[in-house]
């Protein structure tokens, strides 16, 4: 085994779980194998000062290794995850394991992704659990660490795919695909000595021993859409224990990120009320997304999200068509199940919603602090002042976005009100508003909001709260 001099690396670099099978001739078993044990290559090398939150070294050390046959080098990072992070990931996957699938081919170009679909295969007998992008603060921290390790923008990271190999389960020789420039695999547990479960690169003559918290990174391509066939690999079966890991794939195209289009000055509301203070309006300027969305494409049909600025200080934006009616109906149905995400499409929709909300308020996704599903029915008559005071108690993010998931009649209540501005937004499925809200210690003008209850029926919606600034791992 060749292990190059260590290179300190500021750690870490989204799509379906689509592992492309190797379509080249059967790879012969290597006659000579270099076995790389991350514990051995880091022996005697102190990990350095640990981050108190993650338990991970503040400066990660990556070791460059190659196989007995030479060829491309891989990066091994022995201390990529902390103990609490590992336990958190395993807890997220508990009860969510499904049989792993494989793709039916390899993308020839970025336009051919429609030709690849997933299916069960004897070539892969493990179980998988797809995490949501930014599912928790810990997942978010890991995703950012991956992006830094790979040197690739976070927008290109696919959803993290956890895998579980029971004794005898495996993934035969395959290539991750020319549409994935880099792969990082993270081992979540140790296996008994001699129990198998290694990752084998037969063309390189290289075998990686699974070690808890260790990450291995490699490049899958020689250039754009040029796969490196030397990087085919296998997930060898464990003999008696269960092996856990995380597949982290970087795609060659952004994973449905949304950007703003149009202008922020398309619509201005002059309420006639002073902006400072918290006066309660006695008259309301009503915004109806049905009237405003004419000519505005659904974000579903475009990667562009149009927002209208309806107030400047404090800033308030409106996206008349943040969701299509179909998307809003799916999310409303999920609200009745307590957001139990049962399939990949549902998870992808929730992830897309978070990205669009992020674009609406102009805050990066890593600032997302809380997602809250709201289902409100008629309530006992309560004076407006009490409702407003309740709304002022902002416990979470400085920036808030809210999207309506169903329609209510104009006189049916359920509207979103901004008392300082004399502005109210009617409940229209797919319409979203974003604003800067109050939070202790944060200065600048903020918009007080009032979520009115419906007069009859129920009003469905989703709140997303964003911090003022991102935290670092």
UniProtKB/TrEMBL annotation:
<dbReference type="GO" id="GO:0005506">
    <property type="term" value="F:iron ion binding"/>
</dbReference>
<dbReference type="Pfam" id="PF13640">
    <property type="entry name" value="2OG-FeII_Oxy_3"/>
</dbReference>
<dbReference type="GO" id="GO:0031418">
    <property type="term" value="F:L-ascorbic acid binding"/>
</dbReference>
<dbReference type="GO" id="GO:0004656">
    <property type="term" value="F:procollagen-proline 4-dioxygenase activity"/>
</dbReference>
<dbReference type="InterPro" id="IPR006620">
    <property type="entry name" value="Pro_4_hyd_alph"/>
</dbReference>
<dbReference type="InterPro" id="IPR045054">
    <property type="entry name" value="P4HA-like"/>
</dbReference>
<keyword id="KW-0223">Dioxygenase</keyword>
<keyword id="KW-0408">Iron</keyword>
<feature type="region of interest" description="Disordered">
    <location>
        <begin position="1"/>
        <end position="33"/>
    </location>
</feature>
<feature type="domain" description="Prolyl 4-hydroxylase alpha subunit">
    <location>
        <begin position="72"/>
        <end position="251"/>
    </location>
</feature>
<keyword id="KW-0560">Oxidoreductase</keyword>
<dbReference type="GO" id="GO:0005783">
    <property type="term" value="C:endoplasmic reticulum"/>
</dbReference>
<protein>
    <recommendedName>
        <fullName>Prolyl 4-hydroxylase alpha subunit domain-containing protein</fullName>
    </recommendedName>
</protein>
<dbReference type="InterPro" id="IPR044862">
    <property type="entry name" value="Pro_4_hyd_alph_FE2OG_OXY"/>
</dbReference>
<keyword id="KW-0479">Metal-binding</keyword>
């Amino acid at each position: 085994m060749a292990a190059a001099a260590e290179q300190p690396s500021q750690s870490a670099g989204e799509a379906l779980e689509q592992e492309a099978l190797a379509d080249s001739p059967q790879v012969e078993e290597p006659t000579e194998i270099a076995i790389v044990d991350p514990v051995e290559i880091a022996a005697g090398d102190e990990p350095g000062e640990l981050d108190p939150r993650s338990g991970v070294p503040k400066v990660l050390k990556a070791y460059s290794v190659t196989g007995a046959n030479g060829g491309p080098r891989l990066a091994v990072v022995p201390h990529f995850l902390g103990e609490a992070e590992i336990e958190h990931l395993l807890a997220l996957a508990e009860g969510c394991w499904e049989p792993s699938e494989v793709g039916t081919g390899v993308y020839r170009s970025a336009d051919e992704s429609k030709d690849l679909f997933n299916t069960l295969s004897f070539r892969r007998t493990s179980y998988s659990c797809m995490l949501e992008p930014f599912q928790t603060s810990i997942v978010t921290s890991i995703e950012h660490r991956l992006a830094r390790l790979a040197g690739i923008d976070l927008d290109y990271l696919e959803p993290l795919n956890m895998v579980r190999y029971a004794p005898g389960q495996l993934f035969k020789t395959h290539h991750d695909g020319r549409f994935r420039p880099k792969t990082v695999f993270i081992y979540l547990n140790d296996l008994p000595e001699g129990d198998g479960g290694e990752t084998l690169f037969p063309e390189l003559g290289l075998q990686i021993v699974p070690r808890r918290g260790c990450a291995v990174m490699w490049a899958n391509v020689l250039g754009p859409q040029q796969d490196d066939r030397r990087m085919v690999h296998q997930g060898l079966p464990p003999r008696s224990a269960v092996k856990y890991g995380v597949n982290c794939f970087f795609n060659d195209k952004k994973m449905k990120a949304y950007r703003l289009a149009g202008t922020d000055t398309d619509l201005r509301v002059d309420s006639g009320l002073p902006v400072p203070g918290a006066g309660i309006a006695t008259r309301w300027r009503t915004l109806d997304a049905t009237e405003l969305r004419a000519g505005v494409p659904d974000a579903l049909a475009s990667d562009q999200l149009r927002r209208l600025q309806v107030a400047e200080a404090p800033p308030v934006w409106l996206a008349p068509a943040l969701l299509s009616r179909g998307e809003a109906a799916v999310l409303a149905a999920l609200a009745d199940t307590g957001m139990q995400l049962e399939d990949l499409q549902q998870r992808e929709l929730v992830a897309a919603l978070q990205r669009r909300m992020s674009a609406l308020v102009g805050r990066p996704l890593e600032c997302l602090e809380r997602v809250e599903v709201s289902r409100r029915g008629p309530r006992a008559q309560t004076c407006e002042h009490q409702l407003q005071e309740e709304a002022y108690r902002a416990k979470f993010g400085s920036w808030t976005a809210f999207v309506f998931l169903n329609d209510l009649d104009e006189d049916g209540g359920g509207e979103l009100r901004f008392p300082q501005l004399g502005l109210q937004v009617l409940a229209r499925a797919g319409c979203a508003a974003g604003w800067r809200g109050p939070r202790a210690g944060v200065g600048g003008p903020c918009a007080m909001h009032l979520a009115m209850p419906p007069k009859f029926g129920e009003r469905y919606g989703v709140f997303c709260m964003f911090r003022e600034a991102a935290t670092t791992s």
